[in-house]
């Protein structure tokens, strides 16, 4: 017993000795830190703390900083990237040296554009020194082909071209030509890639002694960028800080307000849920002015086009544009064996609304001739097709939808694009190289696929022509204004932007005016107004806007109207803490109309004898520019790419309940049916959402 007690005492002494040694080492290692300052600061990257509540170097900690706690739960949780302190940053081990060397290498090899120009010392010394003045520059531009109104050393931007034009026109000296900061360049409003601006402003110091300085600058600019005028301001003026509010305009084709095609997944769910909620009568009343529109188009224009398509590819063409169910309703693929599917035909209780068609051999089917090619751009016609014999069925585009696409329908693959990408590989050729007869090396199956693509584009063109001829009724325009009125005043727009919780104070914004022009704009190259496309102009006036806010605001109103939803109920609910997945409309139609400087004009301009900053001075020039360089390019891009048509097709055929808040059941229809719950085709049928 005594021996065991002695062993335990020796072990305890050894533990105490080890602990004392560790404490001495810790104290000796902390001594240099105590000598560095009275606050005991640590070196960067020396982080020994552990545990759940260990404070990272550079963070405020749990009991420090504004608002009390450092940890937040629920909707009030801050964005993770915004809370990254020095500890997390250095823990990620960023290789700054490699990044700097890589940037220098690109610059030396000429792979990076310089934001500004560098002149030699002799050129700078030889230039006459002239005084600079603080000015406001009124500008307008078409954003097509530019990466926005911003600073970039590697991309073509509006600011980059403007600064280069100032240097070329002599408005900026050669000594200051290498860096815009030397001229104090400040933008009033930043615009994203492809976004237009009829009126925007930059403030900086320029040499404006020449009376024709505006003309010189415009001569050095690309025609799609214009300088409307230059006004002297007070020395402390900053257009970014002085702006009171901004006007934006959004142009949208009127056919965007057409209801979803009856064959689309969304249209079927809307009708099914309206019936289930006992709202069928009210739902039909909200769609009264467009009732039977698509059925009329299908019975006339579309039926005629389908009749001209070869029978062996007709089913696949309809499937590519409208889905498999609609294809089965319009035409059925012939059976190879001839005896499949007899059960349905023999059952007298099954009503058959479709007819069997004869399977046409690819070698006997009509080949695309000059008449088929007529009106189709050369880039759309394939003369060389590479395809393995095993790839014969077009892939279902719905299987390619990713989780990320659920929040951004613009990323959902288009059925026709999926068809092109999965079954056809093309090679661009010159127009004169296109042959109306199949190439000698083409197999019968390859020839069939060529006809399939041409027929698909022909059917899509028929739908586009029908939409272009649509003219929106006055009653539908009144419903648009009814929806826009809900945005007036100060509201919480956490549902209309990204990464903003409901409790974030910055989610509240003030909208002063939101109007739709009751007189639509007709845009097109044809002399006949009936062939032109009808567009609506929506103008919003607000103090400031968050990311994607305008596109989501208009997207909400458009979706509510085209889906026959209850506008007042849904709009009011969207400003609460409820979460809505609102897709943002294409940026194609967005345009900065003009910024407003009322406070500066009333207080400073009059006091210091400066001209007020008003875009109304250049109203005639701006309107002419909008007609030719902005509206025209919007229409051309929509005609070429079909941005709006593809966007709504993605929404209408997105086979997940994420957008079913547009139905008569509202947000309740989306609860418990997301991807996280494993919602899919089987559960859709069980829940009664899939007819």
From TrEMBL:
It catalyses: a uridine in tRNA = a pseudouridine in tRNA; a uridine in mRNA = a pseudouridine in mRNA; uridine in snRNA = pseudouridine in snRNA. The keyword RNA-binding does not apply. GO terms for cellular component: nucleus. GO terms for biological process: mRNA processing; mRNA pseudouridine synthesis; snRNA pseudouridine synthesis; tRNA pseudouridine synthesis. Belongs to the tRNA pseudouridine synthase TruA family. Residues 394-410 have a biased composition (Low complexity). Residues 334-348 have a biased composition (Acidic residues). The lineage of its organism: Eukaryota, Fungi, Dikarya, Ascomycota, Pezizomycotina. It comes from Cryoendolithus antarcticus. This is tRNA pseudouridine synthase 1. SUPFAM superfamilies: Pseudouridine synthase. Its main location: nucleus. It is found in: Nucleus. It comes from the Eukaryota. It holds the Pfam family PseudoU_synth_1. Residues 1-127, 326-370, 390-417 are annotated as: Disordered. Residues 50-59 have a biased composition (Basic residues). Residues 18-39 have a biased composition (Polar residues).
């Amino acid at each position: 017993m005594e021996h065991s007690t002695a062993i335990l005492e020796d072990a305890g002494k050894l533990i105490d000795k080890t602990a004392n040694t560790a404490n001495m080492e810790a104290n000796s290692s902390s001594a240099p830190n105590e000598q560095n300052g009275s606050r005991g600061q640590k070196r960067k990257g020396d982080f020994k703390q552990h545990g759940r509540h260990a404070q990272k170097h550079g963070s405020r900690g749990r009991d420090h900083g504004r608002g009390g706690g450092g940890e937040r739960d629920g909707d009030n949780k801050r964005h993770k990237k915004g809370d990254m302190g020095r500890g997390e940053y250095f823990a990620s081990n960023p290789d700054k040296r490699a990044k700097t060397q890589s940037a220098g290498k690109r610059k030396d090899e000429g792979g990076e554009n310089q934001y500004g120009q560098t002149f030699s010392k002799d050129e700078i010394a030889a230039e006459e020194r002239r005084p600079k003045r603080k000015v406001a520059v009124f500008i307008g531009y078409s954003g097509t082909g530019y990466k926005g109104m911003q600073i970039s050393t590697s991309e073509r931007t509006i600011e980059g071209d403007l600064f280069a034009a100032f240097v070329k026109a002599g408005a900026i000296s050669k000594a200051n030509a290498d860096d815009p900061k030397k001229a104090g360049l400040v933008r009033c409003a930043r615009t994203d890639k492809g976004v237009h601006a009829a009126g925007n402003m930059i403030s900086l110091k320029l040499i404006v002694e020449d009376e024709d300085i505006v003309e010189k600058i415009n001569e050095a600019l690309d025609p799609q960028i214009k300088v409307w005028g230059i006004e002297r301001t007070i020395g402390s003026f900053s257009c970014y800080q002085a702006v009171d509010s901004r006007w934006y305009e959004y142009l949208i084709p009127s056919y965007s307000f057409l209801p979803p095609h009856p064959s689309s997944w969304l249209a079927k769910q809307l009708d099914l849920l309206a019936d289930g909620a006992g709202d069928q009568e009210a739902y039909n009343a909200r769609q009264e002015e467009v009732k039977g529109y698509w059925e009329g188009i299908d019975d006339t224009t579309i039926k005629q086009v389908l009749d001209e398509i070869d029978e062996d590819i007709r089913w696949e063409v309809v499937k590519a544009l409208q889905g498999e169910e609609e294809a089965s309703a319009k035409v059925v693929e012939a059976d190879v064996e001839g005896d499949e599917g007899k059960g349905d035909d023999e059952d007298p209780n099954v009503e058959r609304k479709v007819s069997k068609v004869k399977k046409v051999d690819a070698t006997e089917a009509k080949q695309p001739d000059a008449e088929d090619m007529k009106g189709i751009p050369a880039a759309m016609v394939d003369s060389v097709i590479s395809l393995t014999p095993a790839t014969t069925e077009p892939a279902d585009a719905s299987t390619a939808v990713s989780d990320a696409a659920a929040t951004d329908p613009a990323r959902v693959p288009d059925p026709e694009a999926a068809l092109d990408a999965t079954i056809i590989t093309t090679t661009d050729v010159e127009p004169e190289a296109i042959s109306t007869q199949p190439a000698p090396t083409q197999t019968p199956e390859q020839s069939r696929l060529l006809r399939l693509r041409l027929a698909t584009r022909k059917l899509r063109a028929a739908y586009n022509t029908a939409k272009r001829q649509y003219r929106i009724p006055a009653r539908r325009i009144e419903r648009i204004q009814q929806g826009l009125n809900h945005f007036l005043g100060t509201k919480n727009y956490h549902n209309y932007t990204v990464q903003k919780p409901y409790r974030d104070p910055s989610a509240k914004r003030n909208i002063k005016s939101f109007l739709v022009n009751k007189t639509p704009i007709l845009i097109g190259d044809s002399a006949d107004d009936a062939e032109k496309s009808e567009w609506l102009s929506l103008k919003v006036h607000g103090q400031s806007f968050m990311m994607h806010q305008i596109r989501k605001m208009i997207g909400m109103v458009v979706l509510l109207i085209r889906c026959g939803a209850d506008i007042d109920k849904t709009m009011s609910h969207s400003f609460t803490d409820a979460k809505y997945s609102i897709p943002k409309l294409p940026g194609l139609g967005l345009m900065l109309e003009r910024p407003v400087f009322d406070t500066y004009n009333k207080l400073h301009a009059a006091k210091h004898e400066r001209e007020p900053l008003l875009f109304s001075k250049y109203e005639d020039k701006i309107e002419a520019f909008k007609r030719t360089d902005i509206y025209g390019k919007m229409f051309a891009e929509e005609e070429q790419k079909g941005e709006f048509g593809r966007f709504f097709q993605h929404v209408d055929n997105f086979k997940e309940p994420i957008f079913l808040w547009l139905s008569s059941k509202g947000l309740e229809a989306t609860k418990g049916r997301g991807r996280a719950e494993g919602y899919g085709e089987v559960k859709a049928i069980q829940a009664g959402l899939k007819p």
